[in-house]
Every structure is written in C-alpha cells, then in structure tokens.
C-alpha cells in the first residue's frame, strides 16, 4: 500500500512539474506583446529582461523565470 501511495505521488509530481514550465512562455509572450509598440525606457529594459527570463526557462529554473517575468510585467504596469 505504501508503495502505491509513493508511486502515485511520483506520478503526480512528474505530471505537475512540466506544467509549471508552460507558464514561462506565456509570460514571455505577454511581455513581448506589451512592448511591441512601446519605445520608452521601461519597454527597452523589459526587452532585455525577457532574454534573461527565456534563459532561466531554458535552464529549467521555472520558478525563477516566472518570478522575473512577473516582476518585468509589473514594471510595465501590467497586472
């Protein structure tokens, strides 16, 4: 019975962990869409920040990537 519970927990974590990584590309797209027609300092910095967000995502650091993306969106005034 303990093995079944442990196996179930591993299966849930295996399925849930990649799902967290899908948030990063959505946030990157939102940043890119927001800055597409903006030429102010905040948009310029956001364009630089999005490269770091993408790098963190590629390295599998999804929590850090998501945090950085959300901070960038906040600087752009996006809620």
List keywords for this structure.
4 helices, single chain, 79 residues, mainly alpha, 0% strand
Q: Please, could you describe this protein's structure?
A:
The chain is mainly α and about 80 residues long. About 80% of the residues lie in helices and about 0% in strands. It has a domain at about 20-75. The protein has helices at about 1-20, 25-35, 40-60, 60-75. The longest helix is centred in the first third of the chain and has 20 residues, at about 1-20. The mean pLDDT is about 85.
Number of strands: 0
Question: Tell me, what's the shape?
Answer: elongated
Unreliable segments (pLDDT under 50, ≥5 consecutive)?
none
Q: Name the average pLDDT.
A: 83
Q: Sketch the major β-sheet.
A: none
* Count of helical stretches: 4
Question: Structural class of the secondary elements?
Answer: mainly alpha
Percent of sequence in beta strands: under 5%
**What percent of residues adopt helix (DSSP H or I)?**
over 70%
Termini, distance in Å?
Answer: 46 Å
Gyration radius over CA: 17 Å
Order of helices and strands: HHHH
Quick overview:
The chain has 79 residues and is mainly α. 82% of the residues lie in helices and 0% in strands. Helix 2 runs parallel beside helix 4.
Question: Topology of this structure?
Answer:
Blueprint: H1 2-21, H2 23-35, H3 41-58, H4 62-75
Helix pairs in contact: 2-3, 2-4, 3-4
């Amino acid at each position: 019975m303990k093995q079944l519970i442990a196996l179930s927990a591993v299966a849930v974590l295996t399925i849930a962990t990649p799902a967290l990584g899908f948030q990063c590309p959505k946030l990157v797209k939102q940043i890119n869409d927001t800055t597409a027609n903006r030429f102010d300092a905040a948009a310029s910095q956001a364009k630089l920040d999005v490269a770091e967000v993408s790098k963190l995502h590629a390295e599998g650091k999804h929590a850090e990537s998501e945090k950085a993306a959300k901070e960038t969106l906040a600087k752009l005034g996006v809620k």
